[in-house]
Fold this protein.
Amino acid sequence: MKLVVIAGATATGKSALSVALAEAIGAEIINADSMQVYRGMDIGTAKITLEERHGIAHHMLDVLDVNQDSTVAWYQSAAREAIDEIHTRGKSVVMVGGTGLYIKAAIDELNFPDTDPMVRHTLNKEAEELGIDEMFARLEKLDPAAALAIDRANLRRIIRALEVIEITGKPFTANLPREESVRYPHARQFGLVMDRELLSERIDERVTTMFDQGLVAEVQQLMNAGLLEGRTAQRALGYAQVLSHLQGEISLDAAIEETKRATRQYARRQETWFSRDARIKWISPRQPRLESILESL
């Protein structure tokens, strides 16, 4: 039984390839996108549709409500449970997504220190006084690698990383495992890479399509479902910008352009994060993607 990871930046074509691969090797798919775990966040996350899944079972999709907060530790436990359950049925697994920390948490031996209420309280108080940009700048200084893995708009995760640094006296990434310390040593990882200019064009087209398909209406529906009550989901790319528009802070055109800019920036951070893992075999659009993976398995 195989465990194959398909990673890479947003808009590189991971979802479609994962379905083709799962069909070829008789696998089920596990989502490793931190925002596709949310029910109702479909358009803005480019979530694969039921039709596009071709009957392949997908796990870790639509498992949380938008007023619930996802954590890396929660994902690690749930994803490993799904991997092991699928394997016990004699089937292979394809894990697909762009959230590098989720992938690493699932397949490697990543341990999470307990929270410290006093440290957490102090950091939250500082965040209220100094603002999110100052807290992210602190994280960049203390642990540049962690800053690559965390969305600069996600205050909760920034504070968590700073908390781990405070508790352990080590960088947050010191808690990440070495490559030989893995939960699933048989896992094979592949990354989709794309020319920066082409990727930027694909991102711009995708964002335009999302707004055309009704992203604003989707956000309005999710606000009724509790989007503003949770801390994680409302920070998602596209959703945060639409919320700013609906709250009268920016125009619709500005929300669209800001979503494109932020997504391009996020894609660069994804590329940097994944480039640090020497186990990933990179596949470019010039290569026959499915065939290249199958030949390597």
In short: The mean pLDDT is 92. The radius of gyration is 19 Å. The chain has two domains: 3-110+176-296, 117-175. The longest strand covers residues 3-8.
